[in-house]
Design a protein that fits this description.
174 residues; Immunoglobulin-like; four-stranded antiparallel β-sheet; 9 strands
Length: 174
């Protein structure tokens, strides 16, 4: 069975001090209200009347301005506008990526030994490789580490407490 205990502390202020404080606060509030309440009421009324007059003028059919004609160029006709041209997929045109910046996904083999992860792939002449390490967690995917490699292998320290790690390897012409 629970017992509730309540404590009452004596009030440190006298009734006269309470009355003086209340009078001071109410005097300040009433002075502010009497000065600003009519000003705000007049300002709100003027804004309301101005808004209604403006709205009435814009709705009236005789005051409408003719809509300007807007012409939009079809992106399918802009194939020669960009230096690399455009690639058309369905009815949507995308800028063509230049060959120098084009990335190629590279298949790789992964192995783990002595708290190290090793990625290996077949080396192609004239390419450098971008290795990206992403951590997958409940908050989503966060890619923190990006390394540029010129060879055919990459080694990374492996932390056993990391929940899930994903590696990607892309080849870029050097």
């Amino acid at each position: 069975m629970e017992t509730k205990r309540t404590f009452q502390f004596p009030d440190p202020f006298t009734p006269a001090e309470h009355a003086a404080f209340t009078a001071k606060v109410m005097g300040t509030l009433s002075a502010r209200r009497t000065v600003w309440r009519p000003v705000w009421a007049v300002a709100a009324s003027v804004a309301l009347v101005f808004g209604l007059l403006t709205l009435n003028r814009s709705i009236h059919p005789g005051n409408r301005m003719p809509a300007a004609a807007v012409r939009v160029a079809n992106p399918l006709h802009l194939a020669q506008a960009l230096p690399g041209g455009m690639e058309v997929e369905g009815n949507v045109a995308f800028p063509r990526v230049a060959d120098k910046a084009q990335k190629i996904d590279v298949p790789f083999q992964i192995s783990k030994t002595d708290h190290r992860v090793r990625l290996a792939w077949e080396k192609m002449e004239g390419y450098q490789y971008i290795v990206q390490k992403c951590v997958l967690s409940a908050r989503g995917k966060s890619c923190r580490t990006t390394t540029v490699v010129r060879g055919d292998a990459f080694q990374d320290k492996s932390a056993d407490e990391t929940p899930l790690v994903m590696y990607t390897v892309e080849a870029v012409k050097s």
